[in-house]
From TrEMBL:
Keywords: Membrane, Transmembrane, Transmembrane helix, Transport
Species in which this protein is naturally found: Pyxidicoccus fallax
A GO cellular component annotation in the UniProt record: plasma membrane
GO BP of this protein: transmembrane transport
Signal peptide segment: none
Name by which UniProt lists this protein: ABC transporter permease
Length: 326
């Protein structure tokens, strides 16, 4: 419990620092969202409305400490401001829409890639010199060496343009009514196949090689020799003793990957015009939507911190040595 509280304190301090930076940086930048909106509408907004717009976007003439307390109060209630690229929609609504698609696509792809890559790495190390170790691992490493966006564009060209097996863009067809229906679910799954497959193919080799190399080192330890000497079944030795110890580095990397899921698979979402948070971030930068950028950066930062804290707890459970030195 002392270790958990110490790690929780560290992440709370990191979260407070990210919240503070998220408040300070936009106010140090030249201009403000109200001025950008005024320029964007080319004089169609009355100058008298500028003060009201500045107040709506949280840029007032009040002292910084007053603005900071107001900012924290709004955060505690889930208010991230208004997006002027999607005005009058709130930032929370816009991000929430993108999160649904990003978590569904990138979240599933990362979890599937991690689970399959780790399993293949365990089997490749256990059967060194077999076809998994000598053929599959180098092939996946070769595919993972290609630029991420190149694999996505190749998949789009071959299976979208060329063969016509899968849709070319967006998360669902425009002629399909969104809802909790089997037709809509099948259409969403069909649109997600190519983006998800490109993420899995690009990352599967790294998970497999990482697990395979750690597993090989673990198989040479005295613990594994003792397990074999005691006559334990090979499957039990492989999964309970070797794989569990070798999994720790992959779990740490998985926590980082899972945290960055909320940033979206940026290039994949651009190639497929997928409406996730990565695509939203590009649109926010392109439209100079500072409130939306600020909200996205905050959500991504907090997601990474939460994922790392969850990994710390998982490692505490998986590795008895961590509990001993906590």
């Amino acid at each position: 419990m002392h270790y958990v509280l110490r790690r929780l304190g560290f992440y709370l301090i990191a979260a407070w620092a990210s919240l503070t930076l998220n408040f300070v940086i936009p106010r140090l930048a030249p201009g403000d969202p109200a001025s950008a909106m005024f320029a964007r509408f080319e004089g169609r907004i009355q100058p008298e409305a500028m003060a009201a717009l500045r107040a709506v976007f949280g840029f007032t003439d009040a002292p910084w400490h007053v603005q900071y307390l107001t900012y924290l109060k709004h955060l505690m209630s889930g208010e991230l401001g208004l997006s002027y690229a999607y005005y009058p929609s709130s930032v929370s609504e816009v991000i929430g829409t993108g999160l649904v698609w990003t978590v569904g696509l990138a979240g599933f792809a990362v979890i599937f890639s991690f689970a399959l890559g780790s399993l293949l790495g365990v089997l490749a190390a256990w059967n060194r010199g077999g076809w998994l170790d000598s053929v599959v691992a180098p092939a996946l490493a070769f595919l993972g060496a290609f630029p991420y966006f190149w694999l996505a564009m190749l998949a789009l060209y071959l299976f979208g343009f060329g063969l016509g097996w899968f849709p070319l863009r967006h998360a669902y067809s425009h002629d399909v009514e969104p809802g909790w229906t089997l037709t809509f679910a099948a259409d969403v799954a069909r649109h997600a196949v190519l983006p998800a497959a490109s993420i899995v193919v690009a990352t599967l080799g790294s998970w497999m090689l990482s697990m395979r190399n750690t597993m090989v080192a673990t198989l040479g330890t005295d613990t594994l020799r003792l397990a074999h000497a005691k006559g334990l079944p090979p499957r039990q030795v492989m999964l309970r003793y070797a794989a569990r110890n070798a999994l720790l580095p992959n779990v740490t990397g998985f926590g980082m990957a899972l945290g960055f899921v909320l940033s979206g698979s940026l290039l994949t979402e651009i190639v497929f015009s997928y409406p996730g948070t990565g695509y939203l971030l590009i649109l926010a930068v392109r439209n100079q939507d500072y409130p939306l950028m600020q909200g996205l950066f905050l959500v991504i930062t907090l997601a990474v911190l939460a994922a790392n804290f969850a990994v710390d707890l998982l490692c505490l459970w998986l590795d008895p040595r961590t509990r001993a030195h906590a």
